[in-house]
Design goal:
Layout lengths: L1 E5 L6 H12 L2 E4 H14 L7 H9 L3 E4 L2 E4 L2 E2 L7 H10 L3 H15 L4 E5 L2 H5 L5 E6 L2 H14 L6 H17 L12 E4 L5 H14 L4
Parallel strand pairs: 1-6, 1-7, 2-6, 7-8
Antiparallel strand pairs: 3-4, 4-5
Helix pairs in contact: 1-9, 2-4, 3-5, 7-8
The structure holds cytidine-5'-monophosphate.
Amino acid sequence: MIITIDGPAGAGKSTAAKLLAKKINFQFLDTGAMYRAVAFAALKTGAPTFDEPFLQKIIDGITINLLEGRVLLNGQDVSMQIRAKETTEIAGVIATSKVVRTKLVELQRIAAFEKNMVCEGRDQGTTVFPDAFCKFFLTARPEMRAQRRFLELQEKGINTTLQEILDAIITRDQRDENREISPLTPAHDAMILDTSDMNMNKVIEVMHEEIQRRGIK
Ligand code: C5P
């Protein structure tokens, strides 16, 4: 059984997906980490531009494993590196690629096959799992999302400014919403939650109530 959580950067999807999965004893799939891992692999080659044949080679030459919250690229733990600024930016760029999306969608469906899983990303309810049991779309005002990201990064000791984060979030939103393949948009049957004025406990409570209403305890 699949539950999808989609939405823009910084809407709280990852935290919500992890907490919800724990609460209902489901596994959890962070699909953004897969795009980040491909971006990291592409950047590591030092190539100046990434066209489709180049990205096909990258995709064919790597293995990505998501293990208990860790991200393994060719067996090496890159969980921290894939959160770096440059990788974050390039993840949004390579996410417009047809070859990358085709491969990652396939891997996501394999990862979730016959499992109980909360799958989090941009296209989980629209493209990857259109028949999911329950779909959520989390969003929040850009200023709110930037503020949350800023605090998160500060906690991790990463030096940045609120304005820099807001600009990056707006750029990423625009790229995700306007790309040709699987643009970021709520599935027609998704429950849309604006989390701007909600704390995470409330978000989980609302999502849990919705899936209980549909029969999962
Ligand atoms: O969610 P996260 O910020 O880790 O995702 C990194 C990037 O990967 C996003 O900016 C988005 O462009 C892309 N992505 C995507 N489809 C997904 C998950 C992430 O296009 N299902």
